[in-house]
Every structure is written in structure tokens, then in C-alpha cells.
Amino acid sequence: METSQLVSKKNDYNRNYTLEVGANRKFILSHNFEDIDAPYFKKIGVKIVLKLMQTSSISCGGVVIFRNKVLLLYKNQHGRHMGWVLPKGNLEDGETYKAAAVREVMEESGVAAKVRKFIGKTQYSFNIAGAPAKISKTVYWYLMSTDAFTCKPQAEEYFADVGFYKKHEAYHLLKYNDERQIMTKAFTEYNQVNKLTYIREDEKNAQNM
Description:
Blueprint (H helix, E strand, L loop, with lengths): L3 E5 L8 E5 L3 E5 L8 H6 L12 E11 L2 E9 L2 E6 L2 E3 L6 H13 L4 E13 L8 E11 L13 E8 H7 L3 H31 L2
Parallel strand pairs: 4-9
Antiparallel strand pairs: 1-2, 2-3, 4-5, 4-7, 5-6, 5-10, 8-9
């Protein structure tokens, strides 16, 4: 094999990538760039050259609360990226932020959730080997509800466990401080939404008396 070029059709690191081997052969890598097995390509004699990489990316996630407990996932990617996190993932082509958040919650945890409201965004940055600059990630978060504790971790994305936890438990379990903050805000909004619901039910019952 000669040289290869890893280039993005949409100039976005987490979209589809074309790996061109030699002059004519190529195939598509449609998974997240962070999961690309660079050592494997090196082993089979493919030199990976990164080009046209954007320095920003968007993800969407959900803070799912049911009966005062919040949904958390435990990730263990072969001993890397270990820890409890909130469900989130990359935006797909033609998808709204809200739809992406609902889909990611379902895919990663098996939970069918409904969006209650948008609660904010978080930002962080990370490095990718060979990239010319840090990648800046923005995550859009939604408060969500569901009607059962039933859940199942998505093994394909290296999630080893999933469950619903009380606020104080989740606060200590969550790996990242920004997710602790957005979870705390979600509980505040959750309590406010429930309070308004109770008030409306009381007003309705009073009118029917």
C-alpha cells in the first residue's frame, strides 16, 4: 500500500470519513473519529494523514429524571474514559438538537424519554492525536422524563452499566464537573415544572368543586 488520506466530506471530524488507499481504493468510516483504530491501520501499512479537520463539534444529551432519580451510564472503553456520565452523542445529518438528544438517550440506555425543556449547554475541549488544534465540543442539554426505570446499557459504545440514582448519589458518581452542574440545574427545573403541575391540578379541582 502507498499513502492514504483521511478526509471528511463535510469538513467535520465526527461525520463520515473517506480513507483513500493508494490511487483508486477507498472505503467509508462512518463511526466517531475518536474510535478509529489508528494502530490497526498502521499495522496493515496504511499511513493516516489528517486533513480538513474542524476545531469544533456539537453533541446533544438528556438529563432524564423519573421519580426524583436521574439516569446515569457507566463507560469503560478498555480501561479508558472510565466513569459515570449523562447520556449524550453526536448530531446526525438533518437532525434537530432535540431529536438527537432523544435518540442518544434511547440508543445508549434503552430509555424512551420525552423532552420537557431545554436547560442549557456545556463546553469543553480535547485533543486528538495528529490534529492541528484542540477540538471544542458544545453539548446541548434537555430535561427529559420517562415512565419506568427499565434501562439497558449499549455495549457497542462501551457502556457497562446504567441506572437511576438520587440527586446526591449522582452528584458524587458523575465524572465531569460540568455534568454535575447541568444535572443540578435539571433538578431545579424538574421541581419547578412539577410544582406548576400541582398548582394547575389544584386550580382545576377547585373549579370542579
